[in-house]
Amino acid sequence: MGDAGEDLSHAVVGMGTDEFSNVDPAVVTGKLKSILDPTPRIEMASVEIGGIRIGVIHVEQHPSRPIIAQKTEGDKIKEGDIFYRYPGQSARIKYSDLRAMLDQRDRQARLDVMPMVERLLALGPQRALVADLEEGVLANGQGRIAIDSELLKNISFIREGNFDEVAGAPTLKLIGEVVPVDQNDIRSRGVLTDDVFLRNFLSGQTISQPTEYIRYAAVGGRAAWLPIGYFAQKAGLSRRAVRELVAGLPGDTAQKKVLLTRIDKADGAKKNYAGSPKTIVEKLMAGQIIEPTDAKSAGSIAQAICGLREKVPLLLADLLGLLGRCLAAIDAEGRTPALSSVRRAACRIDELFFPLTD
């Protein structure tokens, strides 16, 4: 209570420092992106009320609720947590509220899709294409064409459900070049994980947006070892350009620092293991392929690949195929710890065949 008896339980105290005002919103968003999926959209501002400066964070309601914690962070956020705003507090959501949220989302999805369904029925399958704005493609079940990422920005109104048509005007007008997409084309606009990253490298297929893989390796992935030289070469980036790209990303995580160190080293993934891997690496350097028989041998082969020296006589396709078979053997037995050796081996192959150039 104040001197005059007024209730001061909700009094505006204000900020004692300018720390909040100096925080880069990109850093906050980067932190949220690493913890929450999907990432909530926020706006930050500092305002003055009665001569007192306060900080304001506005969190928009996400159209793809619920937002789920994808990893444990400290003591208060556990993997799988869904927080819900109750009167006066944010707490883990109750089942009834989660069920109501999901039902509401389903109802809204049906309402949003009905205008499109009606339009598709009116046009018929021969005259219609469906635009996937996450993958960046137009498809009708028989073929696909890719939409340039810059063009996607110009038609982002579709995300807002704006399907009203003006008589005689096209609903969607494409300006610029459209490129046919092969069925093996890898689109980085979709969900990218450590596993997808590794398998895309091992497959050696065409990459549509290679710089997204480099960004993911720096701030999105969890694995310490992810190959980037292959993707840098596909993007036409020099060592300096890759460093500038990574250094310019928001955040100051340990993973980003490790990647910056790797960019400056030609053989950062090289490691000489003792025992069986030491014997295998000499056979590989002699041009012999050693096939994995189980997860244990697969792990040893992966460690041997990490010790490969310059001018290895084996072809890139041979090494990628061998490492892919090692990965399959490890997956078959669920030997998750051995995956780190496979990822590091992939980075060693990457260094040998796709070195960053100045």
Summary keywords:
single chain, about 350 residues, alpha+beta, four-stranded antiparallel β-sheet, two-stranded antiparallel sheet, 13 helices, 10 strands, about 10% strand, globular
Helix content: 40-55%
How many strand elements?
Answer: 10
Tell me the radius of gyration. 26 Å
- Main beta-sheet annotation: 4 strands, antiparallel
> Could you report the average pLDDT, rounded to the nearest whole number?
78
How much β-strand is present in the residues? 5-15%
What gap, in angstroms, lies between the N and C termini? 67 Å
Number of domains: 3
Oligomeric state of the chains in view: single chain
Overall, the morphology is globular
Low-confidence stretches: 156-190
Order of helices and strands: HHEEEEEEHEEEHEHHHHHHHHH
Strand sequence of the main sheet, in spatial order? 7-8-9-10
Number of helices: 13
Describe this structure in words.
- This protein has 358 residues and is an alpha+beta fold.
- 42% of the residues lie in helices and 11% in strands.
- The chain has three domains: 19-93, no CATH class; 109-180, no CATH class; 189-358, no CATH class.
- It contains 13 helices and ten strands.
- The chain has a four-stranded antiparallel β-sheet, with no helix packed on it. Strands 1-4 form a two-stranded antiparallel ribbon.
- β7 and β8 (137-139) form a beta hairpin.
- The longest helix has 29 residues, at 95-123.
